[in-house]
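Batch job 17 of 40 flagged for manual review because the log was empty.
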Amino acid sequence: MFERRSLSFPITLGVFMILAIVVLTIGWVLMWAGVFASYLSVAMLSIGSTLFLLVLLGVITYLTLSIKAINLTRRQSNFIDSVTHELKSPIASLKLYLQTMNKRELNEEEREKFLKFMADDVDRLDGLISHLLDARTMEKNIADKEFVTLQLDHLISDCAETVCVRYRVPPETISLDLKPAKLVAERVDAMMIFRNLLDNAVKYAGTPPQVHVAMRKERSEVIIEISDNGEGIPKALRRKIFGRFVRLGDELQRKKPGTGLGLYIVRTLTKRLNGRVKVLDRDKKSGTVFEVRLPVHPNPN
């Protein structure tokens, strides 16, 4: 799940910079001692300047790699905090309810209430495991995937129904304005894209939650816009949210559950289907709009 990068490049770069510094030092000492003739000194000065420039570029590259590594480590730490919290909270809750039911005689109303809370905790654990498995599934070789022609409007409608059931909200919470369209993709991938987007839309929507899905066609593309009535996402952070393990705010003070993988999954799978996803402002209203552009099958029927 964590990013795997080869160490050969930074090691080679480090060895090169060490050798370049050694050569530069020896060359400068010999030039200072007057070992070289004047015409050779000019040539050595040119070579030394080139090596110095290469070392400078190497240092900049190393600094860039170090910053990326630090950011990745922070995101992984954030991810671990999130998963730990998401695992411990429902497990502790389930344990408490089971102990209470075991030690006390409950009436029918109390028993039903406890069972409902326990079912919610199980759903929360199931959602977490599904997210982790989704991220793992993306590491499959694209050649191993089975692409089929999907009726995109039906698929989005199914995803909306699933999300409404999960959050126990009325079906009208997600309003749909869909057009017939076909998409060539693996069904699981397409489901993950729209399930994650709709899940986020309902999760971060206002009270009461209102989500709208609109679909339109432009030439060989289908454009799906998923809008909510939440607080919105600052423009400066709109590219950042698609990174792996990225969640806005402090993990330990956050009220909404999650792993920071949902939008990363959306972006990766959308790119795999030669599509694009971005965040837009909602016209004159609070909230966020996620726009997904995907190539469609020429025959919508």
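Reviewer: the log was empty due to a logging misconfiguration, but the result itself is present. Helices lie at 8-32, 38-103, 108-137, 152-167, 187-203, 262-272. Unflagging and moving on to job 18.
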